[in-house]
Amino acid sequence: MTPGTPQTATPPNKAAAPAPADPVAGLRRARTLGLLRQAALAPVLVVLVVVGSLVSSAFLTVNNLTGIGQQISALGVVVVGESLILLIGGMDLSLESTYGLAPMVAAWLILPVSSFGNGLQLNPYLGILILILVGAAIGLANGLLIVKGRLNGFIVTLGVTIVLAGLQNGIVKAQTLFQLPTAFGYLGSAYVGGVPVSLIVAVLIFIGVGLFLRYHRTGRAIYAVGGNPAAARAAGIKVDRIRIGVYVAGSVLAAIGGLMESGRVSAVTGQQGYGEGIIFSVFAAAVIGGVSLKGGRGNMVGAATGVILLGLVQNILDLANVSNYWIEAIDGVVILLALVLARVIGGEASAE
Amino acid sequence: MTDSQIPAVQAVGIDKHFGSTHALRGVDISIEAGHCLGLVGRNGAGKSTLVSILSGLVAPDGGEVRVGGKPAPPAGAVDAWRGQIATVFQHSMVVPQLTVAENVFLGSRTGRGNRVDWRAMRRRTDDIMAEWGFDISPTTLCQDLTVEQLQIVEIARALATGARCLLLDEPTAALERNAVQRLFDRVNQLTAGGVAVLYISHHLEEVFEICQDVVVMRDGQVVRTSRTSELTKDQLVTSMVGSVADGAAAPAGTVRTKTAPSDSEPVLVIDGLTTSSARGRLNGVSLRVGPGECVGVTGLLSSGVSTLGRVVAGAEPSDTGTVRVGGRTVKPGRRDLAQQAGIGYIPEDRRLEGFVAHLGVAENTTMTITDRLSTRLGLLRPHGRTQAAAPLTDALSLVSSGPQQPVGELSGGNQQKVTVARTLIHDPAVIVAITPTRGVDIASKALLLSALTDYTRRTGAALLLASDELSDLVHCDRVIVLVRGEVFAEFTDPPFDREELIAATEGLVRTGQDNR
Question: Which of B298, B418, B308 is nearest to B359 (CA)?
C-alpha cells in the first residue's frame, strides 16, 4: 500500500528476540521505582534535620527529639487510622472529633462531680475500655451509614464530626477536665528508659499495622477493596465487612490517639481534636507519605515519614521563635511545599 | 491504492517505546478517503497504541503522521486534532447524564465565547442525525439509550467535528447481530460520502465484509497489507498468529466429541429464576448441569444471558427461584457465599470486576484462595502466592514481566488470563463464565476456552458459558437460547447449526431438538 511496507514486514523471529530480556529489566525497574517512592521523603527529612540543627543548638538533643516523639505519636496513631480508611477508598473527617470525644467521655465518667465529672467515678481502666468502645461505636455508626446506607462518606463524617464535637462540649458544659488519674494519663505522659511510652506504642502500632497490611490476608484484602471493589467482590472478598471493619479500626485508633494527647497535656479540653483542627495535619501526613486519596495505594512507611516530617517542621518553627501570629501560616505553607515535593519526587504515588 | 491520490491519513515509520516495551516498530499505514481499512492483530500487537497515536493522544518516538498530506498537529493539541481525525473508542466515552446533543458537541464550541447556544446545538445535532439517517432525538438523555444508540452518538460526535477520517476501535464488541449489520450500513454510507475509515476488530468476518483493505499487525509491526478480496481467512489468521499457527484458531463448526453424561446427579441445579435486572430480566429460568458438562447460554444483548450468569454467581440478587450446587441451596445475591459454595465467576467486564489493576499478577491470581494460602492467624507469604499462581499462569501461557507486574499493565488477553486463573485456582465445582473471550485475540481465545472445558471435564465440574459469540459455543455439550428472559430453545447435539442458533436467538423460528 505504501512504499515503506516491505521493509517493515520483517519476520517474526526477529521481533521475538528482545522479548526475554524485557521482563527482567521491567522487574528491576519496578523494584527500583518502588524503593525510590518509599525513600522519596528521606532527603527532605535530612534537610529538615540540618535546618533544625542550624536554627537551634537545642534541636539535636535527646530531650528535644524525645519531645518531638511524644508530640507526634498521638497524631501518628490517628494517621494510621486515617490511612487505613483511605486505603479502602474511604475518608473519615470525624476522626478528629473522636480524638476529642472519646477521652472526654472516659474522663467524664472517671472524675468526681467536683472536677466536672458526672459522678460515676469509674475505675480508670474501665474508663480506657469505655474510650475504646466509644471509638468503636463511632466507627461502626460511620461504617454502617456509609457502607450499608450508601451515603457519601465525606458528608456523613462531616456531619458526625460536628455532632461529636458538640457532645464533647455538651456533656461537660464546655469545661476542661483536669486531675486525670495516673493510669489514665500514663500512655501519654510516662517514660520508659528515657523514651516516651506514647512513642513506643505509636511505633508498635505503625509496625504492627504495616506488617498486617503486607502479610495478613485481611490486609491484602484491604488493598484489593481499595484498588477495585467490584473485582474484590467478584473474587469472593467480603467487601462490606472489610470496609465497616476498617472504619471501626480507624476510629478506635483515633480514640487511642486522643488518650495519648490527653495524657501528654494532663487534661481533656473542649478544644482537643475538632477545636484544634487536627484533621488537616492527619490528611497532610498521610498524603505527603504517599497514601492515595483514591484508595488502594500507600503504606505505613510512607505514612510514618509524613508524620515525622510534620513533627520536625512544627518543632523547628517552635525553636526558631517564630511569632505566634505567623506560625500557622508558615506551617501551612511548609505542608503545601511538602505535598508538592512529595508529588515531584514520588511521581504519581501521592497525586492519584 | 493509486499513488497519485493523497491519503486522508498517513503514518510513516511510527516508532513507540513504553519503558522497556517496544510497542511499535516502524509502522507504516495509510488510510484513504472513501475506503474502509481493516486493522487486525492479536492483543498486544500494537493496535491500541497505533490508534492512540493516530488520534493525537500519544506522541510517537519516531516517524510522522500526515493528515491530507500535511504534517499532523503535535500530540495532545486537542483543538488542532479536532476536525481532522475522530475516534470512536471501544469503551463508551458518552456522558450518561447529558443529552444526546450535549454529548455530540462535548468539547466543541456551539455559541460565541463560552456561551452555550442550546438551540443551535440541538438543530445541528438534528441535521447530522438526518444527514446520516440516524434516528435519535437530540434532547434524549444518554443514560436512556441502548448500547447501539450510544455508539451512534459517538459516531455523530465524530462527524460533528467535520472529521473526514474516522477510527472505529472494536465498534461491534457490545452490539448484537442486527445492530452490527446496521453499523455496517452506516460505515458504507460514510465511505461512500468520502470519509476515510480505519476499522479495528477481532471479528475477521466483519473485516472481510466491510473493509476493502486490511493491515495485519504483529509484535508492533505491520506484517501484511492486502486487499481483502485477495485474501482468505486462513491466510489472515496465519499472518496474525505468525509462523506458529498451531491450529489454535479453531474455526467455527469444529466437530468435537460429546462427553455429556446423562444420568449422573447434576452439579448445578437452577430452578425458576426470576429477576427484573437492568441488564435484562429473567422470567422463570430453570436449568440442570451435570458433572463435566459444558452448557452454553446465548441470546441477544438484553435477553438475560449475562443476568443469568450473574445471578448464579451471586453477583446479583434474584426475586424468586433457587440455585443449588451439589444439592445445597446457595443464598442469592451474595458473591462471597456463592464462592464458598464452589461457584467460580468470570465476569463479563474484566476491567470492572476481573482484577485489581495495580496489584500484581500473582496476588490477583490468588485473590480467591487467600484463606487456603494463609496460616491459622491469617498470615500470607508473598512467595507462597507466587508459587501457588505459577502453575496456572504457566498453563495459560500468561505473558508478564513477572509475578509482581501490575495486571493493569498487561494486554487485554493476558488480563483475561489472570481473571480465568483467579477462578480456576479455587477449584470451583461450578464455573460461570460470561463472555470470557470478549476482546481477546484468536490464539488466547482458543486457549482460554480449552482451559475452561478441560478443567470442567477433568474435574467433573459444571461449566455455564454465557456468550453471544457463536465460536465460543462450539466447545459446549449443550446450548440454551434465551429470548426475553425465558429459555426459548435447547440444542443438545453438537456440532450446532449456526443458522439455527442465530434464528433461535432472534426468537423467529422455533427450531432445535428440545423446545419448551
Answer: B418
CA distance, residue B192 to nearest chain A CA (Å) = 21
Q: Do residues B451 and B396 touch, judged by C-beta distance below 8 A?
A: yes
Q: Which residues of B touch A10 (CB under 8 A)?
A: 221
User: Can you list the alpha helix ranges (DSSP code H) found in chain A?
Assistant: 5-8, 12-16, 21-38, 42-55, 62-87, 95-110, 124-143, 153-170, 182-189, 197-215, 217-227, 229-234, 239-265, 278-288, 300-319, 327-346
Closest residue to B335, CB basis, from A11, A233, A297: A233
Question: How far is the C-alpha of B173 from the C-alpha of B301, rounded, in Å?
Answer: 11
- CATH 3.30.110.40 correct for B268-505: no
Same fold, B9-241 and B268-505: yes
What pLDDT shows up at residue B250? Answer: 38
pLDDT at residue B255 in the model: 38
Query: A279 is written with which cell numbers?
Result: 484533621
- Note the pLDDT of residue B154: 84
Cα B32 off chain centre by: 27
Instruction: Round to whole Å and give the CA distance between B448 and B396.
Output: 7
Q: Cell match 470525624: residue?
A: A94
Cα separation, A70 vs A77, in Å, equals: 11
Say which residue the cell 499487525 belongs to. Answer: B217
Query: Three-class SS of residue B87?
Result: strand
- A194 vs B: CB within 8 A: no
Q: Which of B356, B385, B418 to mutate to test the interface with A (most CBs of A within 10 A)?
A: B356
Query: Which domains, from first to last, does chain A contain?
Result: 42-346 (1.10.3470)
Write out residues in chain A with pLDDT < 50, as ranges.
Answer: 1-27, 348-352
What CATH number does the domain located at B9-241 have?
3.40.50.300
Distance CA A239, CA A89 (A): 12
How distant is the alpha carbon of residue A314 from its chain centre?
A: 17
User: Is A5–B225 a contact, with Cβ atoms under 8 angstroms apart?
Assistant: yes
Which among A10, A23, A25 is the nearest to B221, CB-wise?
Answer: A10
Supply the pLDDT for residue B4: 46
Question: Is the interface score ipTM higher than 0.85?
Answer: no
Phi, psi of B76 (to 5 degrees): 90, -15
Residue B198 is inside which H or E element, if any?
strand B196-200
Identify the segments of chain B with pLDDT beneath 50: 1-4, 244-261, 510-516
- Grid coordinates belonging to A342: 512529595
Contact B218 A12 (CB under 8 A): yes
**Is B289 strand, coil or helix?**
strand
Q: For residue A99, give the nearest of A260, A324, A337, A308 by alpha carbon.
A: A260
Chain A environment of B347 (Cβ under 8 Å): 234
pTM (2 d.p.): 0.74
Q: Give the CA distances from residue B383 to residues A37, B389, B399, in Å, rounded to whole numbers and listed in that order.
A: 22, 10, 19
Q: How far is CA A330 from CA A311, A320, A325, in A?
A: 14, 12, 10
Burial class (CB in 10 A: 0-12, 13-18, 19+), B74: exposed
**B188 backbone dihedrals φ, ψ, rounded to 5°:** -60, -40
**Are residues A4 and B374, on separate chains, in Cβ contact within 8 Å?**
no
* Beta-carbon separation of A220 and B363 below 8 A: yes
Cell numbers of A6, please?
516491505
Burial class (CB in 10 A: 0-12, 13-18, 19+), B347: buried
Q: How many CB atoms lie within 10 A of CB B245?
A: 15
Domain ranges of chain B: 9-241, 268-505
Distance CA B315, CA B263 (A): 30
Minimal CA separation from B346 to chain A, in Å = 8
Question: Which one of A1, A37, A215, A237 makes the best mutation probe of the B interface by having the most chain B beta carbons within 10 Å?
Answer: A1
> For residue B150, which phi and psi values (nearest 5 degrees)?
-60, -40
